[in-house]
Write a structure and sequence with these properties.
Length: about 120
Amino acid sequence: MNVQIRRTQAADYYATENVTREAFWNLYVPGCNEHYLLHTIRSHEDYIEALDYVAVANGEIVGNIVYTKSLVRSVDDKIINTITFGPISILPDYQRRGIGSLLINATKEIVHKMDIPAIIIFGHP
């Protein structure tokens, strides 16, 4: 299977929200709200547009990953700026084929060049 990883475009937003809904539907609870979370993230000031990527297979968006700004506050009140990814979503028919790893690894390389000390993963273990 040939999968391309590319930046998400505004025209992809609806499709990525559908991918996210399909990926999480009835997974942990009846229904899901991760697609609404994705929709909300994109209008938040902490959303990092440069780290919103899709996976495309056979001309169809089959996966998506987004990042937001985050921070860690130490016990002595020191703040360490970090970023968080999630949700990461893969259509059910494409799960367990390495597409999520492709999205994580491609974006991790970009983050490495951004001088960010840590990526925090948001989601289910």
